[in-house]
Amino acid sequence: MSTKTIISTENAPAAIGPYSQAVKVGNTVYISGQIPLDPKTMAVVDESFEAAAHQAFQNLAAVANAAGGALADAVKLNISLTDLENFVAVNEVMMHYFTEPYPARAAVGVASLPKGVGVEVEAILVIA
Asked: In 10 A of CB 63, how many CB atoms?
């Protein structure tokens, strides 16, 4: 049986519920959904959708780094949006953090997200 390693970093927001920032099993890392919270203040970044999306991806990157990987190790992303009108904008923001070959991805519209934010991003990484 594989051993689970809990990943935690102060460079990403602390969990706001009963979950870990990430769990590593073998060379696979499961990163919990990251919303646009400033990790220093735990305040929601909401100047614009783009600013919020950048913060969510920065938080995701911080957890990936704490796990010994990087966003380039992502094999699957799930993006939740409260407004699918932001689909093009989230694609543009994502291009700042990923290059080809891109990870597999789902982007879904949801009714609401924690703290009233408009975007949440989670990832699965495989670290060589």
From this structure: 26
pLDDT band of residue 98 (cuts 50, 70, 90) is: very high
**Tokens (6 digits) for 44:** 């929601």
Question: Domain limits of the chain?
Answer: 4-126
Among positive and negative, which fits the CA dihedral 116, 121, 124, 127? negative
Which of the four CATH numbers 1.10.287.180, 3.30.1330.40, 2.60.120.260, 1.10.1790.10 does domain 4-126 have? 3.30.1330.40
Q: Are 53 and 89 in contact (CB under 8 A)?
A: yes
Please, where are the H alpha helices in 18-104? Answer: 49-66, 87-94
For the entire predicted model, the pTM comes to 0.96
Q: Which two tokens stand for residue 16?
A: 């706001």
Q: Give the model confidence (pLDDT) of 35-45 as tens digits.
A: 999 999 999 99
